[in-house]
Every structure is written in structure tokens, then in C-alpha cells.
Write a structure and sequence with these properties.
Oligomer: single chain
CATH class of one domain: Mainly Alpha
Number of helices: 6
Distance between the termini: 98 Å
Shape: flat
Strand content: under 5%
CATH topology of one domain: Multidrug-efflux Transporter Regulator, Chain: A, Domain 2
Number of strands: 3
Strand order of the largest sheet: 1-3-2
Low-confidence stretches: 8-14
Mean pLDDT: 78
Amino acid sequence: MAQHQPIRKSPPASGSEIPDKLYFRIGEVARLCEVPAYVLRFWESEFPNLKPHKGGTGQRLYRRRDVETALRIKSLLYSEGYTIPGARQVLKSELKQKEPQLALAIHDETPTVDLRQLRKLQKDLRDLLTQLSRPVSRLTVQPIRSPRPASAPRRTSERLFDVPPEDTRR
């Protein structure tokens, strides 16, 4: 797959400072990014990592992270000359680089291992395997309903349609 390269290089478009607030309305974000609100709504449909929350009234509420993402999108599209698919790919690769990776257990010194814990874990796993390998018996299955008391009569199809005998005393 071909790497998308920027067409032109220049400093980021918006050097504006983001105010220290929890939420921003779409008009505020539009002013900060210096783009119309409809452009932000379009970017929401094109970039999966730009997802503002909607309040109870349905108004978009952007967090600081969303504003930073919108500014980065603007920079990629307008300043660096990326296409929308190219900018999407750049954001995706930047997101992958930010995700923490699991640290390897390689150190200069020999790692200490507690053999008792490993043996206990091994025994627990073997016990679990034994339990899961057993065939399921019908006795282990719990009924969905609670059992009927012995005093309650059982309804059968004959009893359902039984008609009491008519009174013959007329």
C-alpha cells in the first residue's frame, strides 16, 4: 500500500490556544479551528476518531481531545496538503503509535520468578481442565423454575378439559 505524502509543508495553521474547559460547543470549535461548523460536521462523518458527545438537547459537545483532533485534521488537510483518505491514514498511524505496548520481561538482571506461584497456577489450570473435560450430567443442570410443591395437583390434558357433571336434581 502506498504511503501518503504531504503535498506541501508549512507550520500548523492554527496557533490559537485552546481554553481550559471541559466541553466546547460546535460554534466555539469552529472559531478555534477557523472553519465553518458544517465542515466540522463533515469531518465527523469522515474521521472515526472525531466523535463529539451529544447533550440532552442534541447539541454537539466537544472535549479538549476532540478539539485537538479537529485542529490536527485541519492541519493535515489545509497546511500539509493531505487528502481525506491520506489524513485518515496518518491519524490512524499516529493513534497506533500512542497506544502503550506491553513491556517485555527482558532486563539486564535475571528476572525473579516465584516457583510456588507458578506451580499453584499450573495446578489450578490442570484442575480447571479436568472440570471442563468431564461430560455434563443431567444432575448438574439446574431447573429454570422452582419445583412444584407435592401438594399442588398436576394439570394434565384430561383434567384441563374435564367438565363437571351436571346436576341431575331438577
